[in-house]
Amino acid sequence: MERSVDAGSVEIPHEPVVAADIVSGTPSVGVLELGELGGVEIGIWEITPGVVTDVEADEVFVVLAGEGTVRFTDTGESIELGPGTLVRLREGERTEWEIRSRLRKVYLA
Q: How confident is the model at residue 1 (pLDDT cuts 50, 70, 90)?
């Protein structure tokens, strides 16, 4: 891992989301893994507009840019995402991500 990176502007290669996970739109995702710290993966994740489903890992993230909503399908809870939002996800949670504008986050998982 480099000592520093501009998390807001570094280029991240994208690939299409797996078709089975897409609810609507044609979103793509990109991940830039920055390394590990004490067994915890650190990285930057980005997704383009659309709606996708996921099963979560243990993770903490902060949104750098973009807007969306993450819904927890088992509980009905939802969280509005925007710059500065800090979120804790738990392993096994089932989610639906509605992304309204390209969303970028820094994560620890």
A: low
